[in-house]
Structure formats: structure tokens, C-alpha cells
Amino acid sequence: MEQITTEAELRDLLGFPAERTATKQRPCLDPIDKAWLAASPFCLVATSAADGSCDVSPKGDPGGLAQVLDDTTIALPERPGNRRADGYVNVLSNPHVGLIFLVPGRNDTLRINGRARLVSDAPFFDDMLVRGHRPVLALVVDIDEVFYHCAKAFLRSDLWDPNTWDPAALPTRAQIAQRLERPDESLESLERYYGPDYEKGLYCAP
To answer: How is domain 23-157 classified at the architecture level of CATH?
Structure first.
């Protein structure tokens, strides 16, 4: 492998962005950004610990996952999950986060970079109720920059085209868990666990 070790080498291969691309980030939310956040049900949250180890965690809720607190601040609720909290642990030592907000069917994405903190309660938690459940904590992000990312990755991948979908080409979630995570449990019990009743626990603590 021929490794690239300097930015000069990288730029020799990729070139430089057009000025409109290099300068498109903004320090606060536009009304269009707020509308996008109100429509977005899914976000990827990238974090890094003080030692450089990284994590990217998916977050999902009905549309309006992120609560807009003001023009430079948003909050994401924490819902019951596996309790690893890798990204949250990272934020405790390094507050810098990168967020990508998706809207199903849209090939462009909204990106927000900023500094995050963990909040265990606040008045806006009452606005984050889903199915009667209040979040146990929220990731509050002070925005450094916000901008839209072009559609090329989604167009190349045909992500939203059902004709390209083939979920049956892979083992089921239960089969993956039985092989790699929970080998002492039977496949039958895992199929029941990940079956139709799995959705009932989306907003209840495990």
C-alpha cells in the first residue's frame, strides 16, 4: 500500500474544494435548518475520547429527533438501549461532536459540528416525550458550524431505492447475536427476543 502521510500528498490526489464549498459552513441555524431538524428522525453522532479512540452512534426517534433550543443550540434525547454509552463517555473527556441528520428519501444531509455536554434534566425534557416516556438524559450541542452535504454518496449507494434492498442476503439479527454475542443462548430464544415483541421495549428501560 502506498500511504499518504501529508496534506500536500492528499491535495495532489484530491485537489482543493471550490470556494463556495470550502466556505459554506455557518455558525447558527437558519429556518431551513430548523425545518430539516423537525423532519429528521435519524442522526449519526460521532465522538472521540481524549486518547483519540472514536465512536459513531445512531440515534432515532419520530421526526423532530433533535430539539432546537435556540439558534446555536440543539438537544438529542437518550432512549433506552444497550447502556454501553461509548459516545457519552467520550464526551466527558472530549466535548467535540459531529452530527449527520438524515431525512428518509432525501439524498442530501445536514451536518452539525459542535461541543456537547450531558444533561440529566431540564425543562425541555417535557417536550421530548415519546409514547409517554421522558428521556433520562440529553446530549446538548452548542453549534460551531452547520452546513449541508451533497447527495453523491446516497446516489452512488442507491440507499433509498427498494430495488437494491436485499436484507435476506445477511443472517438475521438473532443469528448474528447467537454466533458473535450470545453463544450460550439458543437461536430459538433469540429469535423470540428479536421478534415482533422487540419493538414494545423501544421506550422502556430494559
So the answer is: Roll (2.30)
